[in-house]
Request: fold
Amino acid sequence: QVQLVESGGGLVQAGGSLRLSCIVSGSIFSINGMGWYRQAPGKQRELVGSITVGGKIVYADSVKGRFTISRDNAKNTVYLQMNSLKPEDTAVYYCNARIFVRIWADYWGQGTQVTVSS
Reply:
């Protein structure tokens, strides 16, 4: 069974920083892309950033220059460093990974709340 477990969310003032981590565990053969999504109340889930196994990175325009995604392939872990946080970054942040068990499939974490106060 595959599990994605996020950590690092919390409450921070505007301008502050947080670092999210997501560890993938279970009977995994291979992991391809990994990424972070977020969903604010009343809004659709949106991509924050993604990173391929080779290190190719994509960011949402709203976080470019403030957020940094990285991964440690040896630890099956993806990180999201969030700096200069704004109240509009408030959302539940979800980790996503494309994982090969018997077939390639997308897996999700349970989400971690990030709240930025003004």
